[in-house]
Amino acid sequence: MPVHTLPASEAIGQLAAFDAVIDARTEDEYALDHLPGAANWPTLDNEQRITIGTMYKQVNAFEAKKRGAALSARNIAAHIEREVLDKPKGWKPLVYCWRGGNRSGALATILGAIGFQVTLIEGGYKAWRAALVASLPALAQGLHYRVVCGPTGSGKTRLLHALAAQGAQVLDLEDLANHRSSVLGHIPGLPQPSQKRFDSLVWDRLRHMDPARVVYVESESKKVGNVAVPDALIQAMRASPCLDLQLADAERVALLLEDYRFFVDDSEHFCRRLEALSELRGKDTVAQWAQQVRSGETPAVVLELLTRHYDPMYAASIARNFQQYPQALPCVLRNRSPEALAELAVSLIRSETGSAPA
Predict the structure, then answer these.
(1) pLDDT higher for 268 or 217?
(2) Is residue 62 exposed (0-12), middle (13-18) or buried (19+ Cβ within 10 Å)?
(3) Which of 73, 106, 125, 233 has a CA that sits 20 to 30 A from residue 183's CA?
(4) CB-CB contact of 302 with 253 (8 Å)
């Protein structure tokens, strides 16, 4: 059966039409970013691609192509034996590599020869990435946001989770970025995605949103750790109505000690992270905080961090960047409990829809 090709600009809107999406690039290329739901079937793996590339440069293209063909054939055979033998004749995969060339072409040709309805993305991942970037602005600006504002520790992320549990549409950028969006926001053992991967995750989440319904999102900065929120999205967020989440200081400290439990369990890790504040707060202050942490006074340090560092910076940033914050709806939490968050979530959804969540 002949292999069909599809422009990336059309593939963007047709992913659901395929039974599988197959990435024929190396493991490292796939890890950097890939299409939503794509499975990795490397035509050449990481080491093999380096080997063939070296042959191209040091020997010649003909010898490299022969060696590459042999390796590719073995890898494709293994993929077919592992993944394809149970597939029905009507199975329709979408296949791509970096630029839609030899690697995806070889895999697609063999799958097509078997009799499957194979489609190749024209221009491969490179064209897909360009189409995704081009489509993000309209996607981001076509939604209606409610921005959850509030000082550090007020429970913004927890409220997003409570809203999601009640059926609301939620965009949790910190979850997608694997970061809690502050100097101390790195999560031990959990690396952040690449910028390209983050963009893809955001795009994938946005495309599943219903434009007729509100999307709740936290008042993030332009950057969440090392990744940047797409320009069109941050602009739309900053122009949207805001909620002002409020929680008593003692509850904020307790919430942070729960959410950042790894700082309590590993005081030296906390002290090392505090060093990032030396330039802003002075070495003497940071040294004093570290001494208190080592003495078991972590709650007192957290409270001082909130009142002296995070709260003033957050207030200035919100006032500067979120246009509708002066008219924000006050949302006062009686405490940090799941029950209080659920009550607030239900109240917010009712105010938007006129009825309680189903």
Answers:
(1) 217
(2) exposed
(3) 233
(4) yes
161, two tokens: 């989770």
Instruction: Give catalytic residues, as residue numbers.
Output: 97
Q: Which two tokens stand for residue 349?
A: 């959804």
CB 219 within 8 A of CB 265: no
In this structure, are residues 160 and 216 in contact, taking their beta carbons and an 8 Å threshold?
yes
Neighbour count for residue 309 (Cβ, 10 Å) = 19
Q: How many CB atoms lie within 10 A of CB 60?
A: 10
Q: Torsion angle of alpha carbons 319, 325, 331, 336, nearest 10°?
A: -40
pLDDT band at 357 (very low <50, low <70, confident <90, very high): low
Task: Give CA separation, 315 vs 205, 219, 320, 325, 326, in Å.
Answer: 29, 11, 9, 10, 11
Say whether pLDDT at 226 is over 70.
yes
Beta bridge partners of 21: 94
pLDDT at residue 358 is higher than 60: no
pTM score, whole prediction: 0.92
Q: How confident is the model at residue 355 (pLDDT cuts 50, 70, 90)?
A: low
